[in-house]
Amino acid sequence: MVSERIKKLAMNNSAIRAMFEEGRVMAEKYGRENVYDFSLGNPNYPAPEAVKQAMIDLLNEEDPVYLHGYMSNAGFESVRAAVAGSLNDRFGTAFTENNIIMVSGASPGLNIVLKTLLDPGDEVIVFAPYFVEYGNYTANYDGKLVVVQPTTADFQPSPEALEAAITPRTKVVIVNSPNNPTGVIYSEETIKNLAAVLEKKQAEYGTSIFLLSDEPYRELAYDGAVVPFITKYYRNTVVCYSWSKSLSLPGERIGYVVIPSEVDDFELVFSGAVISFRVLGYINAPSLQQLAVARCLNESTDVSAYDANRRLLYDGLTKCGFECVFPQGAFYMWGKSPIADDKAFSAAAKKYRLLLVPGSSFAGPGYVRIAYCVSSETIRNSMPSFRQLAEEFGLKGVE
Amino acid sequence: MVSERIKKLAMNNSAIRAMFEEGRVMAEKYGRENVYDFSLGNPNYPAPEAVKQAMIDLLNEEDPVYLHGYMSNAGFESVRAAVAGSLNDRFGTAFTENNIIMVSGASPGLNIVLKTLLDPGDEVIVFAPYFVEYGNYTANYDGKLVVVQPTTADFQPSPEALEAAITPRTKVVIVNSPNNPTGVIYSEETIKNLAAVLEKKQAEYGTSIFLLSDEPYRELAYDGAVVPFITKYYRNTVVCYSWSKSLSLPGERIGYVVIPSEVDDFELVFSGAVISFRVLGYINAPSLQQLAVARCLNESTDVSAYDANRRLLYDGLTKCGFECVFPQGAFYMWGKSPIADDKAFSAAAKKYRLLLVPGSSFAGPGYVRIAYCVSSETIRNSMPSFRQLAEEFGLKGVE
Question: How far apart are CA A89 and CA A314, in angstroms?
């Protein structure tokens, strides 16, 4: 009855779904406070008060026909201009409203860019470990996903491996920094090296290769780390941004796409992305959210809370004997599974009421992802469980 | 550079886009109040005060982590249960939250159902004139659009024509009542006849044919007209609803999909639709809007204002000598072009600062669509222009 594709997706879906269900059942059995759910990227810290005030002001002040009405599919011009101005102030770029499309989070941004660019069989390169939905988004438009294996020393994408993966059919390379699931920030050197490879291969094949930068974690950087703004390093860059994490608004579905004027075939790429947004049924990003974020462009979530969690969790886990990548950004810790089979390790963790996502779910077997966008209390209370888990696997902890 | 499909779409897009641009230029030249823009389905009447109050209350009362956070891809369970309950109260159905998916308007609803059901080459039947995006939505999933020609006497879909169009590859039939662009409400007799044809053909071919009911205008019915609730007439019905028009919230992108438990392969169709919503990048319908509409299920826009517009416009146009379908619902009037070439007629109308959409844009040549979701003043002030237009085409008006 349903399509062959959806049948397959429904089958693959069951693993993660089962985890959610299990979490629920465990919470009912042991009490929510006794289940340490590190599986979800749902920020536990509230949106800044300014968001609430902006929404209430808009509802009180604006004509509802304007506030709740249709606008251009690309979004309110005033909002797009404000976003462009904010980017220019921060990154020294020269965008205008004609470079910005307001979208319903980063994921529709990725979808409309892929729909705009991909002919069936065109290749999309991703660096493992990666957000699995990239594979589904690529499949939506009959693209072929090409996975570059990680450099496990530092989890920076390897320019050599990228070069080896590029073919004349390569249309898009997706990057994601700060990274989900590793917490790594791509260094300026990495970006420069990737850009050099792309320039070289574009010239060699006479093609255009788009660097698609998925940036929902841009503002979540620790220790004053700088996240390079990629449009400055490579001409054919498109940026997908979301306020889901930076303003703790994941349910509200609001973000933007930046298409710089210097990308190849700019007019067609920009109008194609707007048309794709419309024909995929999005029509426009929610109007109240658009106008609200435009008033909160200088606001940000409290990164210090995530930073404290990061240190607490990293210290705790290493003391137990676990080996983890110390995160530079985002709110995920990438921990090495003490056994090769990360699914078995995640399954064992459940005995101690710890919910960790197997790295295999990100094409990164041998690891687990631990989302620390939880309360610090959850982290503190989970430590005896992590210690038991470490002991089960014979890890040597320190007191 | 961009995909072949998008290149084509960008080219086809230019006609309607040119109209919008022309409207803008005209408004600048003659003043907005002197341009009679009947081209857009953007409600001119404000959302009920209760919507504003619900949003403000939610912002003041709810924990922002809950209010703005992720929930199940299908939407908040409490909201889905409330929607199910409201439908049951009104239509005597027996839905639960497990039959409801909260989506970002009717258009994503149509998209996720088509993505769930269509294998490449599967056929989707529509009745002309129809909302052109149905063609794009079908093409998104490599479906084949099959157009049934209209019965111009009453613009009710013809069961005989439907029967002739069905093949073993027919997967979906889209209906839209109250109809855009004709303003017609499908009668109970029509629905029963269509259902009988579908039952017969399902049995004959051993297939499942889904009736996909696009219902953004459900609440906009005049003279006490009853809009039959189609799930009661045909088992394999899926309903796509939006609050865009009924609560004047088109920019906010909020609606729902109903998948009754009795459809073939219910579990797979329901989970497939939720997965499709996720993998197309929607993730979930905007959270504030979900919770707000759940508090406004008994609210509705002021239909009497549209009704007054309807009579004003119909009387005015018929007095000018135009022939129009008297609308039973929605806020569109379907007028006969006095010449076969509706595009030329629409072009001529612009001379009198009248913006009408050619019927060809709805696969209904020889007609124009006149959207009367404008102020009554616009309609009143446009009458001298319509009279001049009628005179140009030699129509005989009455005083």
Answer: 35
Inter-chain CB proximity A275 and B10 less than 8 Å: yes
For residue B386 the two structure tokens come to 């319509």
- Mutation target for A interface from B256, B279, B287, B331: give the one with most A CBs within 10 A: B279
Distance, in angstroms, between B269 CA and closest chain A CA?
Answer: 6
A312-327 in b/e form (b: 16+ CB < 10 A) is: ebbebbeebbbebbeb
Q: Which helix (H) or strand (E) holds A126?
A: strand A123-127
Q: What is the pLDDT of residue A43?
A: 87
Phi-psi region of A363 (alpha: psi -120 to 50; beta: other; left: phi over 0): left
C-beta atoms surrounding A15 within 10 Å: 12
User: Tell me, what's the ipTM?
Assistant: 0.96
Measured CA to CA, the distance from residue B131 to residue B362 in angstroms comes to 6
- Region B233-257: mean pLDDT is 97
Measured between beta carbons, which residues in chain B are less than 8 angstroms from residue A52?
59-60, 64
Q: Residue A30 gets which letter from DSSP?
A: H
Tell me the shortest Cα–Cα distance from A364 to chain B, in angstroms.
Answer: 20
Q: What is the pLDDT of residues B163-219, one digit of tens each?
A: 999 999 999 999 999 999 999 999 999 999 999 999 999 999 999 999 999 999 999
Distance CA B172, CA B123 (A): 7
Nearest to B372 by CA among B385, B348, B355: B355
Nearest to B119 among A3, A9, A286 (CB): A3
Contact call for B69 and A43, based on CB within 8 A: yes
- pLDDT band at B297; cut points 50, 70, 90: very high
The single-letter code of the amino acid at B234 is Y
Cα B367 to Cα A324, B38, B122, B174: the distances in Å are 67, 14, 30, 21
Spatial distance between the Cα atoms of B391 and B111, rounded to a whole number of angstroms: 44
Query: Is B51 in Cβ contact with A55 (below 8 Å)?
Result: no
The three-state secondary structure class of B209 is coil
**pTM exceeds 0.95, yes or no:** yes
Pairwise CA distance, residues A312 & B161, whole Å: 69
Nearest CA in chain A to B118: A3
Q: Cβ separation of B275 and A40 shorter than 8 Å?
A: no
- Report the alpha-carbon distance of residue B297 to residue B312 in Å, rounded: 30
* Cβ contact B56–A56 (<8 Å): yes
CB neighbours of A272 closer than 8 A, spacing ≥ 6? A116, A117, B2, B3, B6, B7, B9, B10
Task: Collect all residues with Cβ–Cβ distance below 8 Å to B337 and sequence separation of at least 6.
Answer: B345, B346, B358, B359, B366, B367, B368
Is residue A222 a contact partner of residue A249, using CB atoms and an 8 Å limit? no
Q: CB contacts < 8 Å between A and B, how many?
A: 237
Q: Do the chains contact at A281 and B117, CB–CB below 8 Å?
A: no
Would you tell me how many other CB atoms lie within 10 Å of the CB of residue A264? Answer: 15
pLDDT at B160: 97
Q: Do A281 and B108 lie within an 8 Å CB cutoff?
A: yes
